[in-house]
Amino acid sequence: MGIGMGSDRDDGTRVEWREWGQEAFDEAAEAGCPILLSLTATWCDHCHEMDEETYAEPRIAANVNDSFVPVRVDVDRRPRVRDRYNMGGFPSTVFLAPDGSVLTGAGYLGHDGMRQVLDSVRTMWDTKGSGAGRVPRPLREDNPPAGELTSAVESAMLGQLSEVYDQTAGGWGQQPKFPLPDALEFALKRDREMALRSFDAVSANLLDEYDGGFYRFATDSDWSGLQHEKLLDSNGALVRAFANAYLLTGKDEYREPAARTIEFLTTTLWNDAVDAFANSQPPGETDAHSLDATDREAAAEPPVDDIVLAGPNALAIEGLLTYAAYTDDERARRYATRALETLQTELIDEGVVTHAHPDTVADDAGATAPLLANQARTLSALTTAASVLDPAVLSTATAVADATIDQLRDGDSFVDGPAAGAGLLDQPLRPLDSNVALADALLDLAALTGDDAYRTVAREVLESFAGASDRFGVQIAQYATATSRLLEGPLVIAVADEPGTDLHRAALRMADHEKVVVPGADAVESAPEVEPGTARVLRGDRSSTVAETPTELSEAVQSVLD
């Protein structure tokens, strides 16, 4: 059973929450008081705890209602609000001036902490008013430092990974421990031993052995302190990562976690009403995760947040199609195809991706507007579908790319969405992760269509951040992956054959997970010359001889890589 369609859950607090929007800011301006912005998520256990232990306390609720305009925002439904006001995790408790600037903020607050903060903010407001507000640094520093792209970008990221690698427990960093699928995939090609030890740590510690799917993260360096929520976006990305580890190793110990996660996604998180994936499953009764199989089967199943979001669905589609490409798994292919159909027909209009399926959200959080994260993830899913399933989806992919370039490009990089809305939504934000994801997807699109204009845009995006690339953390490993693919040229396998033939399937299984397979290449004007039923391999200005069989194709790939 789903949690429901509303913008906010029925939290049971005594606080008179307003919806996010200009009305709340106008109310605060008219009353001459600050806004208390509560950022929460349906899957967030600590958010529920704060509702039950802090906001439900009568005196605190009365204090909030009397002295502030309280606004509640679900971060999945309104990612642009999340990205401007997040205090480092959820819940985030943020105090704003009526102009949207930040007075102060914190994370989880218990009774005493909340009383102290409320008193402090009220004193600050009485003393300085809106003059105490500040605009967060990412919104003040509008233009990222540009620079030249060199092989040093890849080397620096590998050095960063090696420096923070946990030799004892696996993974990167000490605490908290996140799975970091982009870092896993980057290291898989450049330091396989370090990568596989980290894959092992993720599967041993974050995989739910009973129900399948990966937990979000662990709080401690030894992977203890599991946070038991399961999110569609991280699970979709991890399916792809583990499928790629299986491609390069051939070992079932990497295939099986992907298979178990696909089972979770296509059962527990499948929203049959709209033929797509639901967004998340919260922890439920935390103790249930420590029960044995028999007792756990009798335990209540945690509810699912049934909202269908475009970006996380795109990640899931890409993960399932990647797995299907390497295994011929029919279940993965079937569910990916169904979700892809929903994405194309219900959530894309003239290249603009709708954030949420309108049948699964009750407020305007699903309104049609291009958000960079959705555009980038959807483009990546469509290029993967063109490579694995059917080149015909390239028409949708080019529409998404063109709409993104037309509506969100500002200079050489991209802003996260339209410069409009309440609070600080009218301030431009250039998220590095989404810019990089878009650039990487544009490289695939250029290879699939033969249109170098997309490659040029990708280069300009990566160059626009290059001046700070030596400071990027391991969370942005995809920047180094994309830069490497741009400078060296991705391995391109042009197959003049229909998807699903032996030659096409062999191309998909060639052991380079950063490659691009172009089926039906004889129909692409700028593709290398290939006769029907043959294939050719390219990288940069290098080109192989023609291959007619899977064995010859393997030899052709090796000849280009040598």
State the secondary-structure class: alpha+beta
Question: How many helix segments?
Answer: 21
State the distance separating the first and last CA atoms: 54 Å
Gross morphology is globular
CATH topology of the largest domain: Glycosyltransferase
CA-atom Rg in angstroms? 24 Å
Major sheet: arrangement of strands: 2-1-3-4
- The beta-strand count equals 18
Any idea what the CATH architecture of the largest domain is? Alpha/alpha barrel
Helix percentage range = 40-55%
Strand content: 5-15%
Mean pLDDT figure:
93
For the biggest sheet, the summary is:
4 strands, mixed
Number of domains: 3
CATH top-level class of the largest domain: Mainly Alpha
Low-confidence stretches: 1-10
Organism: Natrialba magadii (strain ATCC 43099 / DSM 3394 / CCM 3739 / CIP 104546 / IAM 13178 / JCM 8861 / NBRC 102185 / NCIMB 2190 / MS3)
InterPro entries: 6-hairpin_glycosidase_sf, 6hp_glycosidase-like_sf, Ssp411, Ssp411-like_TRX, Thioredoxin-like_sf, Thioredoxin_domain
Protein name: YyaL family protein
